[in-house]
Amino acid sequence: MKRQQLKIAYLILAHDQPRHLSRLINALNCEGVAFFVHIDKKSNLDRFTSRINLANVLFVQERERINWGGFSIVKATLRLMRTAYADPRGFDYFMLLSGADYPVKTNRNIKEFLISGQKNYISLAPMPVVRENEHKTMERLRKVHIESLFPVKFKPLVVLHNMLLYSLNIALTLIHTRKELLGQKEITPYAGHQWWALKRDTVHYIFSFLAENMYFVKFFKFCKHSDEMFFHTIVGNSHFKENTEPCLTYTDWREQDHHPATITSDHINTICLQGNFHRDEVYGDGQFLFLRKLTEEDDPLMDRIDNELR
Q1: How far, in Å, CA of 275 to CA of 1, rounded?
Q2: Model confidence at 43: pLDDT above 70
Q3: What value, to the nearest 5°, has the Cα angle with vertex 214 and ends 197 and 200?
Q4: Residue 286 φ/ψ, nearest 5 degrees
Q5: C-alpha–C-alpha distance, residues 30 and 8, integer Å
Q6: Are 31 and 4 in contact (CB under 8 A)?
Q7: In the Cβ-directed half-sphere of 96, how many Cα atoms lie within 13 Å?
Q8: For domain 3-136+182-308, is the CATH number 3.90.550?
Q9: Distance from CA of residue 276 to its chain's centroid?
Q10: Of residues 251, 205, 194, the one with CA closest to residue 11
């Protein structure tokens, strides 16, 4: 396949920073790409649509109210995937990004990389995955996690809702453990990073798998951080696993608060010296094409990325 013929659907999950999202889309915009964007239902959609008005950008109208670590992230991702897959343009790759990402390579480089590799890029490893600052244990599967009790539209109710929800999840952790993991199916649970780039036939397989295995969605609906296990378990138990390399987004998880560190000039200095290559003893070595996370205040840093890396 020629570079000009490759079609990429960028699936973007965002909840804030409309100016940065606009810059991200403009950086990636070129022939053969389209953008499918999900804005958290708790956010004002007009803040984004008023700034971004390109023919190849679609903001999904049926939005999820996203909760950290909740299954709503998977639901929003599936909504983006189904919308993009049904698009008559017939995309070859579906790339999941955060609204806080930014590319370190040109669009030509990105397309040439995908064409030369012809792989799926999703970091995955059999559970449990336990190391410093990363604890994807089997407890994620055994413990029931309730994401939300009811939709909270008024701020005064947020504190009450969160207190009740926290108490309920603590109680469930103490009194209930799921003995049947994944419905006692012969399936190995996998975990990894949330972001990925999947080929069209792999996305088709995921849809077929879910249609034939309704238990899978029901099970993960009550798992915490299911976005780091859901797609990984499907791909990891398929023949596509043999054609898989680590995800293409670099995230610095060395912070101690379980949140990704903000990209700084030190990260750019390292990339300038060592290239866009990362080593990982769990998920494997590979190249990355994107950095996460950046903010709207990081324009000088993104200018440097454009001038020195892109």
Answers
A1: 26
A2: yes
A3: 25
A4: 180, 175
A5: 10
A6: yes
A7: 26
A8: yes
A9: 19
A10: 194
Instruction: Give me the mean pLDDT over the 229-243 stretch.
Output: 97
Q: How far apart are CA 230 and CA 141, in angstroms?
A: 11
Three-class DSSP category at 59: strand
Per residue in 49-66, pLDDT (tens digit) is 999 999 999 999 999 999
- Supply the angle between the helices 18-28 and 299-308 in degrees, to the nearest 10: 10
From-to residues of CATH 3.90.550 in the chain: 3-136+182-308
Q: What are phi and psi of 50, to 5 degrees?
A: -70, -20
pLDDT digits (tens, 9 = 90+) for 140-177: 999 998 888 777 776 778 778 778 877 877 887 888 88
Residue-level pLDDT at 171: 82
Which two three-digit tokens encode residue 4? Answer: 């000009």
Answer whether 131's CB lies under 8 Å from 48's CB: no
